Amino acid sequence: MSLRLLTVSALALGLVAAPAVAQDARTEAQAAVIRDAALKSNVALDYVTQITTRFGPRPAGSRSEQQAAAWAADYLRAQGFQNVRIEEFPLVGWERGEDSGAIIGAHPQPLVLAALGHSPATPRGGIEADVVRFTTLDDLRAAPDASVRGKIVYVDLGQMHPMQDGSGYGPQTRVRGAGPGVAAAKGAAAFILRSVGSDENRLPHTGTTQYVDGKATVPSFALSAPDADQVSRLIALGEPVRLRLSSTARTYQTHSQNVIGDLPGATRPDEIIVLGSHMDSWDQGTGAIDDAAGGAITIAAAKAIAASGQRAARTIRVVLYGSEEVAQPTRETGNGGGVYARNQGAAVEKHVIAGESDFGADRVYALRLPAGAQGSDFQKAANRVLYPIGVLSSSQVETEGGVDVGPLGPLGVPFFGLAQDGTRYFDLHHTANDTLDKIDPAQLSQNVAAWAGLVWLIADSDVDFRALRQAAAAAPSAR
After folding, report:
1. How far, rounded to the nearest angstrom, does the alpha carbon of residue 165 sit from its chain's CA centroid?
2. C-alpha distances out from residue 223 to 34, 45, 96, 194, 202, Å
3. Subunit structure of this entry (predicted)?
């Protein structure tokens, strides 16, 4: 299939073929120019430095997140984005307060832990109870209620293995989300788990829990890896383990927001390409890799295209989503991705494709396109543009996009993915170690170059990724 999606009849008649081929060549050559210029751009490093330094952590719905969003809107305007707006929505915010834990009894010692997001506070004075340990969520589900009632449930899945694609994260984070609800239903006093991370640092990884029927469950905490090992060893020695846990967490009514800015297309401005990341972060670090870096990459990539002096045919839209990190009790309050998708109405039908940067700032190694694009002329052109900076086209189909752009999928919007090296991402993710110094400027620039080159190819082409996906689904081999 041609990069310009020429029809068979047009090719057969020899009509427009030569101009289209020439235009394709110009588009690809311009993509290489933009890619190389993006490697030298300092916009991404400037953005991530400023937002993490000026505002520090940006918990969803906090004053810090709101101030950062207002500042980011001004930043987009200063970079030449048009139609910049802030899309507010209601939110139940969560504030950590103070949290602490300790082993008490015969072997007293402090624990390093963090309350999990949207879990409730303990009673004044904390909770003291014996620990019952499980190694899987299924084991907890199968346990008799009487064996859990009044105790502190501990789920220890063991060390998460570092993987380039981060695939070890999903099975563990499901325990963090659902485990407290299962424990609460069995009458547990509290819930703890080994931090969902691939490191052995004495820094706990926080993250959100889930509401059950609109209600919070039980006070819940993540133990740092060494402390989780300590508790498990004591239990393995046959020692009764009793803990004291304390949290002063609270929820409050607030709002979050999406920040949206466009680079309008020259000839087809109603056709939208969405570049997504999220503004909010957890409260312990400064949210540099999760996800100020994603905003930096997408803003800088779009800016590199604008700075080239060329306008693509289609509109390039950067969205800095609010409230990606936290669960909500009802659909009336919600994450920015769902809010954006619902607010598009009929305009969503003109969303050509969406991609998300939310996996840190280490190098991009693979391009993943939606179904139907594998082996196409577009993929071949993209490979020629991206291969010189170490990015290879993958046969793997991009189907999910990410938490923020994901709600566009059921509305028919295809996704692309630029896969990043996540080997060390979960060493830092959701911890106090998520700070600016963890970003490698050279790898950050390589991300920007990959995004800029690819997005230009998409934005200045006629490729209909929706049609490609539909054709792939209708093909006999797909049935």
Report:
1. 13
2. 45, 33, 15, 5, 9
3. Homodimer. The monomeric form is inactive while the homodimer is active.
Closest listed residue to residue 428, CA positions, set 419, 416, 418, 438: 438
Q: Is 68 strand, coil or helix?
A: helix
Q: Which residues on neighbouring strands pair with residue 254, listed in sequence order? A: 91
Q: For the segment 324-334, what is each residue's pLDDT rounded down to a tens digit? A: 999 999 988 88
Token representation of residue 151: 């105790």
Give the Cα separation of 67 and 55 in Å (integer): 8
C-beta separation of 405 from 354 below 8 A: yes
Nearest by Cα to 62 from 283, 267, 274: 283
What's the Cα-to-Cα distance from 356 to each of 74, 104, 410, 457, rounded to whole Å? 22, 45, 16, 17
pLDDT tens track for 96-154: 999 999 999 999 999 999 999 999 999 999 999 999 999 999 999 999 999 999 999 99
pTM: 0.94
* Cα–Cα distance measured from residue 238 to residue 356, given in angstroms and rounded to the nearest whole number: 48
Strands (E), 122-249: 127-134, 152-155, 190-194, 220-223, 242-247
Q: What CATH architecture does domain 8-93+253-474 belong to?
A: 3-Layer(aba) Sandwich (3.40)
Banded pLDDT at 5 (limits 50, 70, 90):
very low
Domain 97-248 of CATH type 3.90.1300.10: no
Q: How many CB atoms lie within 10 A of CB 167?
A: 10
Instruction: State how far the Cα of 124 lies from the Cα of 161, in Å rounded to an integer.
Output: 37
Helices (H), 212-349: 225-236, 293-307, 336-344
